[in-house]
Amino acid sequence: MSIPAVVPAPASLDPRAGAPFRLTASVRIEGEADAAAALSALVEARTGRTLAGDGNGDGPTVTLAIERSGAAESYRLVADEASVTVTGADPAGLFYGVQTLGQLIARDGDDWIVPAVAIDDAPRFAYRGVMLDVARHFHPVDTVKAYIDHAAGLKLNALHLHLSDDQGWRIQLHSRPKLTELASSTAVGGDPGGFYTHDDYREIVAYAASRHMIVVPEIDMPGHTHAVGLAYPELVEEPVIAEHMREEGSELPETGRPYRGIAVGFSSLKIHDEATYDFAADVFGELAGLTPGPYLHLGGDEALGTSDEDFALFVARVSAIIADLGKTPVAWHEAGDAPDLAEATVGQYWGFVKPTDGMDEKARGFVRNGGQLILSPADAIYLDMQYPTGPTLGLTWANGPTSVQRAYEWEPSTTIDGIDDSDILGVEAPMWSETIRTLDDIETMAFPRVAAAAEAAWSPATGASDLRTWESFRARVGALGPLWTSLGIGFHPSGEIDWATE
């Protein structure tokens, strides 16, 4: 009996003997309206057919219900010849059960079926994210919404927006209007920039919420702040030009001029100036009012021109500002050894699957401080790394190129010694945009590797399930090719995968 193609792998999947459920014109969807609408859209995209929806009659039914028991975001799906029933422990769980049902739909000659199966499923980690860098290249609201749709279909529940960097500032703030007036118009290579108004940002947040995702805004500091200096030059230090930047022929930053290159680490806010912390309070205070989710990300990576002592002072003060707003601070792993970091700050680890240069020790500092970790190993799930074969998009610095198999074959609980599941908030797959200009670029670089990240975040640990193997994953993800095509996802047809055509 073949295993149905579900990604990420469910906690329990039991193929049943017996005839499948047939998606005929008489099928009715009954139950929760939002889930029914989501399922109807999936069915129509996959099959071209419109189901009858809620109503009375004696035909076969798909029943969608919430039964408030079980773990958060969990669901149960049972399909047989007579009916399909999906029950969620909460609205999110029901939504994820619907996504699974959409993946189960298969062609049978001229008909469409759902195989007989029983699935009990719940997430391994509470936080399952993607990050989109809209600072190096700006991506409009419709692009962000499309990425939300694609990510939610893989049971990812957080969108981390990297809203500021040396190349541009991307969020309107009434408290600091010069940021968008003077620092938002450019991008890498001199491409046009852009920014989100308050209404744009609220639209993104609301759209994400409708797909059971939170938005995590990041304002990177004290480094990656050259654009801040275009608007408020009194807040920033002179650029620190490293010798490697000269040797590599990188565009060198100049005070007061937009930066169009991709070098990092040369910029810094003024650590010992109280105006800097007034700025941070304005920025994060306004963002807190716009962001219903629990997290605000302060960045803190690659502050190469800042001394360790100044960096520790800065992240301690800014994390306290965020905590005082009633939000949980998030910082990249460099901040983990700051002695006065706000308690329970979440760390985001971007080092390699096999840590180098003490990155793992810094990451463990967040746990010692009462926080947890988000794992984003760059040589596994940085989605902007080049593929071994395929498009020339992307970079290679993180031990790249990065294959789909490498994106899959890592285990969160063994990445950092001394860190187990209780210390891990979740997994996030970042998409940096130095070379990423369009939605097509995003989809090509994300799919299928984002599905590997989703499985690391949702599914049982490696070795805890027969489904958690590379061979199982490549077969299951290959079977999703027709669904992704019908949903308009321009995935990279990696030769590592045997792609189904129908």
From TrEMBL:
Belongs to the glycosyl hydrolase 20 family. The keyword Hydrolase applies. This is beta-N-acetylhexosaminidase. It comes from the Bacteria. SUPFAM superfamilies: (Trans)glycosidases, beta-N-acetylhexosaminidase-like domain. Residues 125-460 form the Glycoside hydrolase family 20 catalytic domain. The keyword Signal does not apply. InterPro entries: Beta_hexosaminidase_sua/sub, GH, Glyco_hydro_20_cat, Hex-like_dom2, HEX_bac_N. Its EC number is 3.2.1.52. Keywords: Glycosidase, Hydrolase. Residues 4-122 form the Beta-hexosaminidase bacterial type N-terminal domain. It catalyses: Hydrolysis of terminal non-reducing N-acetyl-D-hexosamine residues in N-acetyl-beta-D-hexosaminides. It is an enzyme of class 3 (hydrolase).
